[in-house]
Amino acid sequence: MFQNPRTQFYTTHVRQELAFGPENLGRDPQEICARIDEVAAELGIADLLESRVTQLSGGQMQRVACAVAMCNNTSLIVFDEPTANLSADVIDQLATLIARLKADGHTIIIAEHRLSFLSGIADRVYCFDKGNIALTATGEEFYATSDEERKQLGLRSLVPVPMPQLPEPAEDGLEISNLTFAYRHGNTVLNINHVLFPAGKITALLGPCGSGKSTLARIVCGLEKAKHASITLGGQKFTSRDAYLVMQDPTRQLFSDTVIDEVTLGTTKAEKQHIDAHAILAELDLAEHESDHPQALSGGQRQRLVIATALAANKKVYIFDEPTSGVGYKHLVAISRVMRKLADTGAVVIVITHDAELVTEVADH
Q1: Which of 47, 77, 75, 43 is nearest to 62 (CA)?
Q2: Under CATH, to which class is 5-119 assigned?
């Protein structure tokens, strides 16, 4: 299963996608249908079976990609960042399913940065660092690692992190009132009476997969148009030109031939003179990749590169959509510092996330 599930979908509807692999393996149609229903029930996607793949949220795509791997029912299953964009309850479902597959005799390889859900499941752990194996341990040894040791290794928390309780915002900032939105021929996706994202603060936007978080971000940035909405910034009418969105899928925002050129893409010659692209890349641990093609980077590196472009953009509103999917502890902290730096300029910073570690690290509201 790829880190970016969008790249491994080949059909138009979810049920077709789940059947695609088994059909190509020549399996019996009745067996395929039964397996699809079984896996869909286990992963909680039965209500998505007749949906179009292009209408799914990032988290829903991730669950469907997991289901595709399950439906193929091969002896070896490889998961690449399977928990990216997933909420805690869905991660628990995934952990239960992986444990069941293991008990059924499947060989399972999981490349991950979010680690707590594999406690009691992983039998052997390899920790990579720049292409080398920095640590080899049994699952029991690894999950006995102290907090200080795991931070030195650049690893995320080995125990579940609860979502913190934070105060509701009360300052001036980006205010959205009387907003309704529905995709064409679809049900209402958003119906918001009032919401405030304060300037100079970082606000976490939470909710289940498919609940409309990314849709709200797209409306603020002008990529979708609400049927009704009043959006103001500091009491003045808001224009989407003042907003910058870091999308869930960073591949869709990278256009230059080199990493260093990507940072200042779209800025004027005068603006470039005030942007230290080298320092920005160094801050996000990308300095050694300045001459690389952006699409040659790993998923986590591409994520950080788009965040670097946000840092150079000089906007009044920044929205980060799942910015820590595919990153370890060190880079989670680096991304948090970038968000804080932007908020300290007086900008509105919104982070859409399921990542309790990130919310604990950086969110004000």
Answers
A1: 43
A2: alpha beta
Phi and psi at residue 108, in whole multiples of 5°? Answer: -125, 130
Ordered by start, the domain boundaries in the chain are 5-119, 173-362
Rounded CA separation 231/227 (Å): 13
CATH number of the domain located at residue range(s) 173-362 in this protein? 3.40.50.300
Q: pTM (2 decimals)?
A: 0.84
Spatial CA neighbour of 215 closest among 236, 185, 191:
191
Please provide residue 113's backbone torsions phi and psi, each rounded to the nearest 5 degrees: -110, -30
Q: Which of 332, 273, 271, 268 is nearest to 300 (CA)?
A: 332
CA distance linking residue 352 with residue 205, whole number of Å: 5
Q: For residue 6, what pLDDT is reported?
A: 59
Question: Would you state the pLDDT for residue 1?
Answer: 55
- Structural contact between residues 118 and 108, judged by C-beta atoms closer than 8 angstroms: no
Residues 6-48: tens digit of each pLDDT: 566 778 899 999 999 899 989 999 999 999 999 898 888 999 9
- Amino acid 2: pLDDT: 52
Sheet of 236-237, strands arranged across: 188-198, 173-182, 228-233, 236-237
Low-confidence ranges of the chain (pLDDT < 50): none
Instruction: List, in order, residues 6 or more apart from 62 with CB less than 8 Å away.
Output: 5, 82, 83, 84, 85, 86, 209
H or E element in which residue 365 lies: none
Share of the chain above pLDDT 70, in %: 98
Output phi, psi for 192, to 5 deg. Answer: -115, 120
